[in-house]
Amino acid sequence: MDKEQPFAVGKSIRRIDALGKVTGEALYPGDIDLDGQLWMKIRFSDRAHARIKAIDTSAAESFPGVVAVLTAKDVPCNEYGLVTKDQPVLCGPGSTIADADTVRCYMDNIALVVAETEAIAAHAVKLIQIEYEDLPPVFDPELAMLDGAPQLHEDRPHNIEQYYRIRKGDLAGGWAQADVIVEGEFSTGYQEHAYLQPEAGLGYIDEQGRVTVIVAGQWTHEDQYLIAHALGLPEDQVRVIYPAIGGAFGGREDMSVQIVLALAAQRVQRPVKIIWSREESILYHHKRHPMRIRAKWGATKAGKLVAIEARIVADAGAYNYTSSKVLGNANLMATGPYECENVHTDAYAVLTNNIPTGAFRGFGAPQAAFAAETMMNRLAHELQIDPVELRLRNCVREGSHLSVGTPLPAGVSMPQVIEKAALESYWTRDAGGWRRQTARESSDGQGAIRRGIGFAAGFKNVGYSFGAPEQSWATVELYGKTEIEQVIVRHGGAEVGQGTHTVMMQMAAEAVGVPFECVRLIGHDTAETMTSGSASASRLTFMSGNAIRGAAEQALSAWKNEERPAKATYRYRPPKTTPYDPETGKSEPNFAYGYVAQAVEVEVDTETGFVRVVRVVSTNDVGRAVNPQHVQGQIEGAVIQALGYTVMEHLVSVDGRIRNPYLSTYLIPTVLDVPVEVKSVVLEYPDPIGPFGARGMAEMPFIPLAPAIAAAIFDATGVWFDQLPLIPDLVVKKLRERGIGVV
Length: 743
Ligand code: MOS
Fold this sequence. Notes:
Radius of gyration: 26 Å
Bound molecules: dioxothiomolybdenum(VI) ion
Structural class: alpha+beta
Mean pLDDT: 96
Strand order of the largest sheet: 3-5-1-12-9-10-11
Oligomer: single chain
Number of helices: 17
Number of strands: 27
Shape: globular
Helix content: 10-25%
Largest sheet: 7 strands, mixed
Low-confidence stretches: none
């Protein structure tokens, strides 16, 4: 690869936002105050499923210090949703939208109270009287699909929000060829994003009369569009600004306080501020989908995969959010990064009266990979073939087709990634193939602590999938007479804490051919930038880099021709993708991927069921590490977040209500849970269409960790686990059932 370029790409340049965040100077939405601001509180639903017959706001309105109370009748166009506009902004009677009088989950918003102080708003919001007529709820997605189950949305028969299927090859013929067949049923839990900063923001009218919202999100222009839609305003009358953002992970992809802040500010014509408590944040934003996956995999004695069948049921909760898209990804990933001629899948995203589920790092891939990679590890065990060896015999390579019947985009590095991951951890290769290098310390049967090793692989799409429109705009301005002294880049991509602004500036410096210090970035403001798409789907480096590079090339030629000003705006559009064929699932799902493989070592305390992850080796093909230290940060962050998902994080929902909405009861990893070693192994097989060869990489280290840990627990104990999270209660119970760890 071309390492000639000396300017900025490939260097671990210090993040431009690092100092401000360390000193506390950086302002997050909750830190910002405007003159004359009021405070807002939201009244949420008290029911999982009910019709609101009446709302009495008189006591709240007459409470001293209350400035306004808003309900459904105050919303000009009372609907929103990132993919499907199926959710009322405020639920209640008198709405512009039929059915908006129904609450379908506890996170539904019913009324807004704007007051002189936060305490007054908090008190007055409780004075609102709501008369409900209860409707029968349904909390189990399997039950929700049955005839006669309560219906959440009229246009979604059997509560099926989305269904996908794949029909490839001859499944019966595949089973006939199989010497070994394994079957499994997997279930995964919710995951809470637990970003550092709960939802917060301000709404106000800016100097040009625009309804303006300062908030933390993942896509300024999408927030702008959804606010404008609900308020019935032209988009240019709405402005969205992101200040510093304290993490996102998919949890800020959908609306939280955006629309209600805009509504309130427009109504009172004064700045309005809201800060959610941690409890509100956990209760009232979407979660990672719990999924149930039934899988059946067959292989020949020689270790060739010949048949895969999978059924996926995802609990979408009460509204779509991004469920239809997450399901598409899970359906694609259900066969793993492997070639198989005969595949049937059926995948359902099902509406229930639970909290809505949506985007979370990996976007459906972690759940599917937990099933697929565990099936691969179980097949390896049944066939007595090393798991690395079995993967290498089946994994996708250049020109391979996935289950959807089309070739992967060029630049497939799965075999190289698996080999490197094996060599960097516990494996060796000799004439007989791949085998584990170290003797198993686990199986001596002595003491309560047993040690095991596991392996898993994965892949992750970069960018929007299955025909979703994909684009990113950038503007580059060049200043200087005899040489370029300053580069101004405008790009809307959200800096959610991942370092993207620094990386954009590095790529701009590289594209123009100037030192990093010459670059200035203007972003995060719909009034200053064009749309960039969201900070999601591991796409921003790839998409912004190509857009910035395109703009830089045009601006450079203008500058060389001494045009003044030397400025260019460029829209990057990647190769087109196509949706699933409804019958066969055939499609061209994605334009780029990243590839990952991980080995883990765990200790299982067979007396307590506690699983300690001791060591993780994560090998990732990132195409080009634009900023190697950021890449390492993403790998370590994803691994620790996935560790929490796998062995710690247990969000309890009973009858649609989350019972542990506190970080004291919903446990996420702390520094004490971090493995002794997380080794980041970075490979750079360039993506043919990635900027400077870069692929997206921020999600993929999350994906294989859970199945790698499950394989390591099997190695340690001889017991396969098929349920997440692997909290001590669950682990110890199953070990006891097998007579392990009985003292
Ligand atoms: Mo992400 S889970 O694609 O916001």
